[in-house]
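Handout, page 2. Input:
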Amino acid sequence: MGDDKRGQASPTPDDELIGRIFGPSIESPAAEGTAEFRSGFVALVGRPNVGKSTILNSILGEKVAIVTPRPQTTRRRILGIQTTDAAQVIFVDTPGIHRPRHSLGRSMVRAAKSAIPDSDVVVWVVDVSSPPTALDRSVAELIRRTSVPVIVALNKSDRLRPDQIEERVAAYTELAGEPANWMLTIATRGHNLDRLWALILTLLPPGPMLFPADQLTDQNDRMLASELVREAALTYLHEEIPHGIDVIIEDWEVREDGLLTIRARLIVERDTHKGIVIGRGGSMLSRIGSAARREIELMLETKVFLDIRVAVREDWRRSDETVRGLGYE
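Output:
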């Protein structure tokens, strides 16, 4: 799921008005340390590019999901785990729900839809700066079919005029069904994510810790590295090409001097795409590799040599067999 960071409209809703709508502060039932420990799975769902992954990264304080302005950046379900003395929340970041046009898209939508009934709480993330779309209504219909508690995260609220707030809140919460919990958020600034966290805890059931307290995600270092290479490619490439890209880590070796050597295969769908990804004299591939290497080094806190080669798999997104082979099922 990616977050659009285009220019923000003004004015920003004032805190006093938002405070009147919210009412009193939300207190977690475990805030005093006397309540039972709470745990469970919280699905982050919504249409593409509404900020699901940005919310996840912001709450965790670590980058476990790549974020770009492009829709459908998130392709798999990703777990992000936040553990405190009071609770363990396992966030399930899902691909944006859309109308798929190929095998990869169908796999992404299945992954997102299946997360809803399997969760203890659903956080439906919407772009509140615009009225509900047909896709928003489709997501709401999926949510209403379950008995799972729902929170509507009305994201990108800094793009709202104050006089639009109540109308948009009503439009989305009515779609979610009654009773609807909701929160205005600005994920890119972390605004109200503490309140969203507290609201989640009020809905989570008591339960044991399900993962080690220091575990942050279900992704290993290789998976995260491949995603960071894809993030860099999505950032620098244009038009349709990024949607037809995937990345495989083929080799991972730590040398005697401590340098981590990573060899990655960047897959495209056309020979013409391969030339664009490489660029004149290898310039584009060099930009992608440099950006990805910096992010991988930051994540792993070690020096990295990153070697990226480009390969063509014609129309791979349309092949059920290839999509499964790349781990999307």
